[in-house]
Design goal:
173 residues, Arc Repressor Mutant, subunit A, three-stranded antiparallel sheet, 3 strands
């Protein structure tokens, strides 16, 4: 191994050009994700924010709005509005908290779990079509690196990353 390769393996050694490429590719990834949702999601699937809430509830069980917001890394008022929409659609159930009846405890409903599974299957199917000519090692590498990146973001900005980590969710499918 030469010195350049060894330097590439050392944490903290970041080439500004590599960071610039990464930043651009992450921006394009977010845009493409939204584009795929707008153009490809059939009826019956849950939109992104609802999907993440349902995934979190499916993983952690019943939880109050404040804790759910912490798990998701967003403001409680935002989660409250999203939960209200999911409750109106019958995808989650809300009940007063046992210790503090002013707090809403949220849980995924059976129809919510069904929609979560339909959405996850649809997302996997669309992803499979996009990467059908990729090798298994490439898929595994991309998934591993994205998980590592998402974990770094979550550790810095969120409190509940383990609640919605893909590994835990896959174990429950």
């Amino acid at each position: 191994m030469d010195a350049d390769e060894a330097g590439d393996l050392a944490p903290g050694n970041t080439d500004p050009d590599d960071l610039s490429r990464l930043e651009v590719q992450l921006t394009v990834l977010v845009r493409n994700s939204e584009l795929l949702w707008r153009r490809g999601a059939p009826d019956g699937e849950v939109e992104r924010a609802g999907y993440l809430i349902l995934r979190a509830l499916d993983s952690v069980g019943s939880i109050d709005i404040t804790e759910l917001a912490e798990v998701l890394g967003v403001d409680a008022s935002t989660v409250g509005r999203q939960v209200a929409s999911l409750a109106d659609a019958g995808l989650v159930a809300r009940a007063p908290g046992e210790a503090d009846r002013r707090r809403s405890v949220v849980s995924i409903s059976p129809p919510g779990r069904d929609r979560l599974h339909v959405t996850a299957a649809g997302r996997r199917e669309r992803t499979a079509r996009l990467v059908e000519d990729w090798g298994q090692a490439e898929l595994r590498s991309l998934a591993t690196l994205l998980a590592r990146y998402n974990h770094a973001v979550a550790e810095r900005y969120m409190t509940g990353i383990e609640a919605i980590s893909p590994r835990r969710a896959e174990q429950q499918d």
